[in-house]
């Protein structure tokens, strides 16, 4: 974080004429009484102290790292420069950040600029010259925003870093939390929020009866929408989550023979709770011996999910995985005790496809590494990055605050190679013509083998 350094200079300057006259008047009164002397002395101390403090405040001076940063637009750029240097996943000596800023200035400003050296101070000087050519406050703001945006976009992986406004950051957080403020499941059924289960079922049946008779593409799409709304609001657990925070369910379960099938369509703050509820609900089903974790098309979510999720399988405070940041491997440990009801599932399969990404990829790699599950499907997407937001304190726009979205870590797969750009390889690739015959080499449960044969090459079940 860029720091503004301040210095309060307590001076020893002579008093003003007005003050001297004041003290002459006080001196004339000193002969009256000793008590008067003490009172006057106290007043004098207060006056001197107040004068010195106020004088120091008016002489305060802000000190910047370079003279060029007295310009708020340069300061905005250099704050971004510093935050990238500190928080970006790759070590500063592995890329030329100063040259990134030079190229961005030339692209955004349409002019050639000179960068004396690849140092922080030279970068600030170059930026100061660039902002001198901007003809207005609005032009300077646009140049500042465009330069930072271009720098971030071109950092590896390209397009994964960016500059966000506060509204965009809110949308980013809501997406991670699985909240869509523009979506209203009650409205999809023609109901007000908080409708009773009876009202929900009645509204769904009435709408479905009409839509099922229609043959248009729009009617079929609407039927899918109202069916989904009904499935969410007709379940007491998912209805409670939606009523409280508009969070939609992320776990969908069903029993397939002796196999518990769980489709995780994304990872949100409620996924672990939903998973545990699904396992608990299945606890009364006899003879369950295996599980399918379907992570196909799972775009991931909050990284700390895996520390909790892995913990319920192997126990608390166990090694979980490493994060790679600027040459260092940061060990992450599990954060939940074992969930005893999982002990019955001796065989576990994870289903993946080319759209399994981010935390879902790391979950796949970790379970594969610990021999907790075998993977069936196709290679995952290869989006093995961890992002976070970093606010910029320098104000260049009264209407907006800005944040950097930065890749601050990269994740590793089961062979300790980077997930980024490579993905996680399945144990059984369903593109192989003989993939079904290989299932028995990895799984013992006849029920699981049958369920995988029937579901692994079909869309996820909701």
What's the short story on this structure?
This protein has 462 residues and is α/β, with parallel strands linked by helices. It has 16 helices and 13 strands.
Main features:
single chain; 462 residues; alpha/beta; 2-enoyl-CoA Hydratase, Chain A, domain 1; 6-stranded mixed sheet; 44% helix
Q: How are the SSEs ordered, and which strands pair?
A:
Blueprint: E1 5-7, H1 17-28, H2 34-58, E2 61-63, H3 72-87, H4 97-109, H5 120-132, H6 137-154, E3 162-165, H7 166-176, H8 185-188, H9 197-211, H10 217-233, H11 236-245, E4 251-256, E5 259-264, H12 271-281, E6 290-294, H13 304-314, E7 319-325, E8 328-333, E9 347-352, H14 359-369, E10 374-377, E11 385-391, E12 402-411, E13 428-429, H15 439-442, H16 446-455
Parallel strand pairs: 5-6, 6-9, 9-10, 10-13
Antiparallel strand pairs: 1-2, 3-12, 4-5, 7-8, 7-12, 11-12
Helix pairs in contact: 3-5, 3-6, 4-5, 4-6, 9-10
Give an overview of the whole structure.
44% of the residues lie in helices and 15% in strands. The protein folds into three domains: 5-63, no CATH class; 67-155, no CATH class; 250-389 and 409-462, Alpha-Beta Complex (2-enoyl-CoA Hydratase, Chain A, domain 1), CATH 3.90.226.10. Helix 3 (72-87) runs antiparallel to helix 5. It has helices at residues 17-28, 34-58, 72-87, 97-109, 120-132, 137-154, 166-176, 185-188, 197-211, 217-233, 236-245, 271-281, 304-314, 359-369, 439-442, 446-455, and strands spanning 5-7, 61-63, 162-165, 251-256, 259-264, 290-294, 319-325, 328-333, 347-352, 374-377, 385-391, 402-411, 428-429. The protein is of the alpha/beta class and 462 residues long. A six-stranded mixed β-sheet has the order 4-5-6-9-10-13, with helices on both faces. Strands 3, 7, 8, 11 and 12 form a five-stranded antiparallel β-sheet that branches.
